[in-house]
Amino acid sequence: MFDWAQRMLGEISIVNSGKDYKQLNKGNIPVYGTGGYMLSVDQYLSKNDAVGIGRKGTIDHPQYLKAPFWTVDTLFFMTVRENNNLHYLYSLFQKINWKKYDESTGLPSLSKKTINNISVKVPEYIEQKRIGNFISQVDSLLSLQQRKAKQLKLLKKAMLQDLFTDKNVPKLRFNGFDANWIQCKLEKEALLTMGQSPSGSTYSDQPSTYILVQGNADLKNGWVKPRIWTTQITKLAKKGDIIITVRAPAGKVGRTNFDVVLGRGVASIQGNDFIFYLLSKMDMNKYWKKYAAGSTFESINSNDIKNTRVHVPNLPEQNRIANLFLRLDDLIRFQQNKLNNLQKTKQFLLQNMFI
């Protein structure tokens, strides 16, 4: 095994500049910017694979670019010098703290000179290739897992659209159910409690007597995530209640696993799982946006929520629909946890496979 050698990036790679694409015609050659794929044109800037790194704007998001491709003038593309491995370079770029080399006091930027002068330690080509190929395999697993998680979320969105309705009969239905859905006000199906903020002097960011929920910042992945505490009870939501935001953004929903104090940016709804998923669909369809039309501050009030007209089936059908979404959410969480663990594994490898 050879010792790793100290090198400048300019000794192992070549910084190439992107160019304007607007004079080109549409085609099948991808154009990349700092945010990723943009569109396709009829000419290429490189016929060799490369690693993209931002010149201006997003400078800390390396991209593996499959040839042929074109890059805009805000995205450098790096090719490797002889006896160096591109997959290794891509992995190395993901470990570098690029913001450390930002040359601007405004929009983040990098220069060729700065990139070329970054000092790194690199092994011989054979070891570079092994490391690069191994990290590439992890990236392939990550991409597969990301697709699984994304497809499940898209499936949930589609099912929310088809299993709920604003008419008497939904588009998609379980066998054995044929009764018309009934239209009613939401207050007939659920009990609403509007929030009221405690005195600011009772707030703490350290765990204390009561968890305070103020708005969307206190919801994560559909659940209350404790962030602020208070010693004063104003309005209370019980464990299992639905939380809905009433101020910008209005209509976001979650559940609480705790008894919580409600600030004025939220309300609680005592309703079953069917009502929770119904509200989730309404938020997805931006139902509450109509109450903010022409207003500088998006908000909904008690009457807006109580008087909202919804269509609901009988209780057995409600439970059947809710159980489907509960199982689907469990599956989404499982796949998301697998993705999170893979991402942690990759970060561990990047930290420990490079000197």
From TrEMBL:
InterPro entries xrefs: Restrct_endonuc_typeI_TRD, Restrct_endonuc_typeI_TRD_sf, Type-I_RS_S_subunit
Record domain Type I restriction modification DNA specificity: where: 3-153, 230-343
Key words, A-Z: DNA-binding, Endonuclease, Hydrolase, Nuclease, Restriction system
Protein name: Restriction endonuclease subunit S
CDD domains: RMtype1_S_LlaAI06ORF1089P_TRD1-CR1_like, RMtype1_S_Sma198ORF994P-TRD2-CR2_like
EC supergroup of this enzyme: hydrolase
Gene Ontology MF annotations: DNA binding; endonuclease activity; hydrolase activity
Protein family: Belongs to the type-I restriction system S methylase family.
UniProt source species: Lactobacillus crispatus
